[in-house]
Amino acid sequence: MEISIRFRAFLLICSLIISLSLFLFNDLMTIWSGAEASWLWASLSSDKTSFLPLMGMKILARTQENFPFVPRVTGAVLFLASVLGFYHIAKPYLGKMVVLLAALVLGAGFLIPVLSKLATLDIWIFSFHFLTFFTMIRYLKQPDVIWRGLFYLGLSFSILVQPVSALVFLMGSAAFLWWKHPQGRRLVTLNPWIAGLLLTIVFHFSGLLHWQNEWLIFSSTGADFGKYMLFNFIGILPFVGFWVGGLRDLLYKLKKGEEMALMLISLILFSVLAQSPVLQAGFALMITKQMLLFSDEQYPFKTWVRATTIIHLLFAFVLSVLLMLGGMTEFGGLGFRSGLIFSFMYWAVGLIGIFGLYGTQRTMLIGGPVASGVLSMFIFWMQLYPLLESQRNLPKRLVEKVEVLENAPFFEKIFIAVPKENRPSNLAVYAKLAFPAAEIIEMDTTEADNEWEKTPKSILFRPVGQSEIPSEGIVILKGWNDQLKKVTWSVQPK
Fold first, then answer.
1. Residue 424, preceding peptide bond in cis (omega within 30° of 0)
2. Is it the case that residue 260 has pLDDT exceeding 90?
């Protein structure tokens, strides 16, 4: 399919906006407790490690004046590099238009660009699974030595980052394609199953593997499966109509044994089993195919696409009103205006896609949902997130209150009252950055209170309940936690 000048210009503009969004506020955004805080805490730790990604992060963490911007930039760079690699690897067998539009859909979604802005291993997994899978498909179509070598390289990196997820996704999808794909027998010469097991054994006994999941938002063990599926659904919201049409089309074409359908189902099925973020790539390709097929008069799922898109925009309108009212309640006129601009970019621009669904203009059909996703995410980071950050930055403000004290350099221990499931917290990371020589200790509230009472030259950070009356001289600060709920914390230096 010939690519028009208008599409090239649209692609360039969207790519620039997406790239800009990937780097906005990565330095100012408060660290998120959980996987990101755990990864950054390990990066700051003085403990030795043989885990190669962590060794790299420890080097980057030495530039603490740019922390956590530098570790977060790694994710953005990995995402952009993986998209470029996908273009060069998949273009010969998927077609230039399909590859470019799929990359655009991926960048206009709400999940992968956000994962790219966080310092976790999820974006590493996405990038290596993404490139390795499509290298395997390239080998199926063109069994040259270069694709064999690149596949083994990608397989090695995938296993190094998270072995369980890599083995489930890559070995499972390879087995399915060997079974169902017309050229699947070529995978016998590639033999990803023996290669995967041998690499895992070698890396394990070399001490290079890390089997745990504390540095992942999406665990490879099956934990939080509901969260994984919900986030992946949110990721394709601007294209939900084409997604529904794509599922219908995929089931229909699987019965006919179509090659593209076999590739997509292997990608989708085994990414779900591995809880890999590369599921978004499968969805992006599925959506892309529907966008390109929709203008065909024989396309059978137009009603499904139209109905789902309209219902989705009706719900989006209701949520937009609630967002504006909530913004006005919390932040006054500025909150209302920010919510209005964000809602307009998502809802009104998405409405252009509706016109395309009922007209003959493919540019509106494709441009509406893509522009809706790209522009609304850009406005979110430019307008809405700074308001959220003014409340989410509570951990930074707590640490800053201690840094200005005269005896700040002499604190030896810092106690943080936090539940076990939230350790290490983002507050612990900021305390470690501000007081690298101090010992950071996280424990339950009662234990923290008792230990602080008998420890000189120490600080206690603890949440304050509504019924508690803080002692005189204790600093009290209010803000929001990671769930955007209002909380109150106290700072008690000794």
1. yes
2. yes
